[in-house]
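Q: For a teaching session next week I want to show students how multiple molecules come together into a single three-dimensional assembly. I've collected the sequence lines for a complex. Could you give me the predicted C-alpha cells for the whole thing so I can convert them for display?
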Amino acid sequence: MKKIDYPFFNESLFQTDLENGLKVNLLPKRGFHKTYGILSVDFGSNDTSFIPKNKKDFKVFPAGSAHFLEHKLFEKEDYDAFDLFSHFGADLNAFTSYTKTSFLFSTTANVKDNLNTLLDFVQRPYFSERSVEKEKQIIAQEIKMYDDDVDWQLYSGIVRNLYPHLPLSYDIAGSVASVNKITVADLYENYGTFYQPSNMNLFVAGAIDAAETLDWIKENQDRKYFEPAFVVQRANLKDLSAKEKVISYRQNYFVTSRPKVALGMRGLDPLPKGRAGLKYELALQLFFYLLLGESSSDYQQLYNTGIIDDSFDYGIEVERGFHFASFSGDTDKPQEFKEKIAGLIMSAVTKIAGRENEFRLAKREFIGRQFRAMNTLELIADQYEGKLFDNATLFDKAGLMQQLNFEDVLDAGRHFVSEEGFSVYELFPKEEV
Amino acid sequence: MRVVLKEGVSLMVIPTKQFKTNRIAINLIAPLTASNLTKRLLLATLLETCCKKFSSQKAISDELARMYGASFEISSARKGNSHVLSIVFDCVNEKFLKSKEDLLEQGFSFLMEILFKPLADGSTFTFDEEFARQKRNLTAYFESIKDNKQLYAVLSLQNLFFNEEKQSLPSFGNCKELEQITLQDLYQYYLECLSKDKVEIIISGDLSITKGETLAKKLSFAPRKLAETSPFYYQQSYPLRRREERQPVAQGKLNLGFSLPVYRTDPLYYAVLVFDGLFGGLPLSKLFMNVREKSHLAYYASSSYDSFRGMMMVKTGLDSENKELAFKIIMQQLEEIKNGKITTIEIDDTKKALINEYLSGLDSQASVVRRAFTNTLAGENVTASVWIKKIQAVTLTEIQSVAKQTTLQAIYFLRKE
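A: Of course. Below is the structure for the complete assembly, covering every listed component.
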C-alpha cells in the first residue's frame, strides 16, 4: 500500500491495487465520526454499445440499462441490501451518470460489516424475471418525475443539441419504452462485462484506520472467485459522432411561467490525457468564471439590465469521451439573453486576455473552494475519477490549481471555444388552454 | 459555551480543529408576524447585495474572493413562532494558507460593514436601482414556484393546514406584500431589527473562546429588552379539510397534514423522532416500503415532523388514479404503529439510523452550527451523549402513544388534468 502525504493540506492518502484489479483509495480523517465508502464502476448510461464478455461482435442495449442494473443490484434472492445496511446502521445510495455507476454507504458504526455488505451486494448479482418486471414500473415513475421537471428538460434539451443521436442524448434512466425492452439476460450481459474488479474502484474516507480497513477489504475479496480480467471494447463516442454535427438551434414549449434559455458549447478538441486533462478542466472552470462568474463585469451588466437573474448558472462537464459547457437561466428577454451571452462566449478569449488581476483573485477563490470541499467526505471521494485523470484525488486537484497560470487558462479557452461546437435551446411557456 | 455579551445579545463559541474552515453565524430573531415575512425576506436579499464600503454585488464578490473564496449568505426562515434572519460567513482556516492573514478577523470586519453600514442617508436606504431589481427578481421567484410541483404541493398543504396567516403563508411571504414595501419602510424596519431582534452569534472553528468574544464584540449591537414568548406554535384542531386542484402534470401529488402536539422540549419528543422515522421519515420506513417498494403506488412517499409547530406532513408523488389506494395504505401504516404492530428489529434499525444521522451531522460544520442554534431557540442544551441515550431509551409503548396523538387535519391533492 502506497502512502501519499499532502502536508500542505494536512492529509495522507493510502492507495493500492488488489490482485484482482480492484483499485482502493483510503483516506483516514482525524476527528470525524462518519465513514463514507463508495464503489464505482467505469460504466454509465453512455455505454450502450460494446462487445459483451465472451462475444466477438458489438451489441447495442436499450437506453437506461446501466441505471436499471444499478437499481436491480440491491435485491437478492434471499435478502435486500437495503435491510442489511439499515441493520448495520448505515445510509446507502447509488447513482448512475453518463460514464459511471456508483454504490455508496455512510455510517458511524459497524464499518467492517457495511463494507462487506457493499462489496457483496455489488459483486453477487441476482436478477429474476419477476423483479425485473416490477422494477419497470418504479423506473417509469422516476422518468415521469423528470418529465415534469422543467430545468431538467432544459438541460437535456441542450445536451441533445450538442450530441444528437449519441447515447448522451438519451436520458440516463432511458425512456419508458426503452426500459420496457430490458431483459434479465441483458442485465447479466452488462454485468458480466463491466462489473469486473479491474473495471471498478473503492474509495473509503473518514473514521478509519488504513491498514485495518485494507485487511477487511482483502479478506472479503479473497473469499470470492473472479474470472480473469479483460479489457472492455466499447463503441467510441468519437467514432460514432464523426459525421454528426451539433444542432445549432431548437426550441420547445413547456408548462413554465417564464422563458428559459440554454446555450451549449461542445468541446471538439481532444481532451489531454491523464492529469493534464484535469488541469484542462480546471483551466476551463476558471476561464468561464472570468467570463461569466458573478464577479465578472459582464455578468454584472447582464444582471443589472435584467437580462439574467439569480437563476443564471453554467457548468463544465468533463467525462470519459466528451466535454462540454452549458449556460442557462430564466429570462424575460430571451432574445437579448442568447445574443449577449453567445457574443461573450464567441469573443471570450479576447475579452479575458486583459483580466490578469481578476485571474489572481479568481485563483484565490478557487483555492478556498477546494479547502472547503476537503471538509466533506462525500466530496473528497466522489471527485475521484480513477483512470480518466490518472487516479488524481481532490488533493492533487488542489495542487494543480495552485500551479495554474493565466496563460493555461487562455490556452484552454482557445482550444475549447468554436463556432461549430455552439448551440442554443429555448423553452417557451405553453399557452394556457 | 454560551455567554451573554449584552442584554439580548449572546455568543456561543464551539472550538474545533476538525474542519479546514471557520464559520460565523449571526442570527436575528423576531416574533413571527404575517406582515413581516415578506419584509424580512427582502431585507435579507438586499443586505446581501451591497453596503457603503462594498457598494455593489461585484465589490462584495471581489472581497469574498480576496478572502480565499469566503462564503457569505443571508437567509430568512420561519421556525415555530419565530422568524430568523441568519447571516452566515465561512472562510478557510488561515493556518493552511501561505499568507498569514487573519481571515476570521477580516470576516468580522466584513460583517460589521454589511450589517451596520448599509447604503443609507439616515432616513432611508439609498439603493433605488438594486431595490427595484431585487423586487423584480423576487416576484419572478414567487411566480416560478408553481413550476416546482413538489414545493407547490407542500405550500398548498401548509396553507390548508394552518389557521393563522403567519403560519399558513409561505415563509417568504407573497407578491402582494412585496409590491407595497417602499425603500423607506424597509429602512425603518431594518433599524427595528438591529435594535430589537434577539441576537445569537455562533462561531465554530479553530479558535479560543476568548478570541471569539473579542471578535464578536466588534459587532456594535446595543443591549435590548426581549419579550418573553414561547418558541412553539399551538393551534386548535378542527374538522378535516380537503382541497383538490387540477393541473397538466405527469405526476400527481398527495400531501397530508397531521397535528402532532408534541414539541421539541417535551419528554416524548424523542419518541416522536423514532415514530416519524418508522412511519415515513427514513428510507427504511413503512411508507417507503409499503407505498413505494411493495405496492409501487408512488415514486416517493415520506413523512416529516416539525417539532416547533407540532405538525407531521406526509408527501407523495403518484399516478393520479392511485390516490385512493395510496391514501388507504398510508393510513393503514399509521394504524399499525398505533396498534403496536412493529418488530423490535424495525425499532432498533430506526434508532440506529437516527443515531447515524445525528453523529454524521457532527462532521458538517454547517450542521453543528445550525443545531447549536436550534437548541438555543428551543431553550435547551442537549449533548450528543444525552441525545443518543434518550433515543435508545424510547419504548414501543411511547411510540404507540405518540402515534395515537396524531390527527389527520388536512388533505391536499394535485391531480392530473
